[in-house]
Model the fold of this input.
Amino acid sequence: MLVLINGFITLCTYAIALFFLVCIVRSFFKTKNVQDALVYSIMLIPFVLRMLRLK
Done:
């Protein structure tokens, strides 16, 4: 039972990280400001690492 709950929580964590990753990438491509693009690229790092399971 605990393995099932742990798997569900892990899946939810990855789904939330993927959602924020997609939102940040969309904002990155929409922006015209170089400083905003730099901030978005720095913000992407933890989400990409989470998707690659490197935490």
User: Anything to note?
Assistant: The mean pLDDT is 93.
